Amino acid sequence: MVSAYLKACRKAGNLTQNDVAEKMGVTPQAISKWERGESLPDISLLTDLAKLYGVSVESILNGNEKKEISLENIGESLNAFVSDDLFTLIKEDFENANNIIDLNVTPDVFLFITNTQKMQILDIIFTMPDYIVIVDDILPYLNNMQRLNLMRHILACKDYDNIEPIMPYLSKAIKTEIVFELLENNAYGFLEEIMPLLGSEHKDMLIQHVANNNYATDTLDNFYSFFDKKQRKILSELYEYGGNENE
Questions:
Q1: Would the pTM count as exceeding 0.70?
Q2: Which residues does 158 contact at the CB level (< 8 Å), separation at least 6?
Q3: Residue 206 and residue 176: Cα distance in Å, rounded?
Q4: CB contact burial 116-153 (16+ within 10 A = b; e otherwise)
Q5: Are the C-beta atoms of residues 52 and 24 closer than 8 Å to each other?
Q6: What is the mean pLDDT of the chain?
Q7: Is the alpha carbon torsion for 13, 16, 22, 28 positive or negative?
Q8: Predicted local confidence at residue 243, as pLDDT
């Protein structure tokens, strides 16, 4: 039991309830309640309490009881944290799955694992043919660097149709890289789909790229309505669009 373990830890350190209360910034009554099982330490105190007792946060949370880890109780385990043993199990589940639909764990694991662990799992996900089905679920849990790696993989696979739904979640820098990649691959059909999601600076890049590469005058016809007045003027001067300025 957690309460019994907390009491044992305190006594092992030759500390009184008053000693612990003073060091933790709580009342002696709070310590007493922890040790009687009437309440638990606030989660914000666990790290300092573990250091004071010379034990791990994990041992406090489980009352120093060793619990068998399985995919069946993963949800319960994740409510606290992901230990090294549990992450090994999660990683093995991804490695053993041929497809995303074969996984036993859910995308929610990304909420509880570290950034380093996320990168390891992403590397495995990228090897799966149906990787795209999990993207929407894990995207909110990824930082900018992880999102950038994800987008680079999607672009490398030329899965352009799968970019549009997640564009709103991407930073300006990532959108810039997407635009450059699409321009490099002449993927103008998809560019038309994401134009409403691009900022003015990205549209400037598009005009400059087409101008620098001497593209045909009808290259941007389908994009014309997405440009502002200044950009349309530039296009008119480059390609003599003339009357289109008033559209």
A1: no
A2: 185, 187
A3: 10
A4: ebbebbbeebeebeebbebbeebbebbeeebbbbbbeb
A5: yes
A6: 80
A7: positive
A8: 39
Written as one letter, the residue type at 118 is K
Nearest to 173 by CA among 144, 136, 135: 144
Q: Tokens 């880890």 map to which residue?
A: 69
∠ at Cα 140 (135, 141), nearest 5°?
Answer: 95
User: Are 212 and 185 contacting, i.e. CB atoms less than 8 angstroms apart?
Assistant: no
Instruction: Answer yes or no: is pLDDT of 136 > 80.
Output: yes
Sign of CA dihedral 75, 77, 78, 80: positive
H/E segment holding residue 53: helix 46-53
List the structure tokens of 151. Answer: 């987008």
Rounded Cα distance, 62 and 114, in Å: 21
- Compute the distance between CA of residue 57 and CA of residue 146 in angstroms, rounded to an integer: 28
d(CA 77, CA 130): 28
Q: Is the pLDDT score of 64 beyond 70?
A: no
Tell me the one-letter amino acid at 85.
D
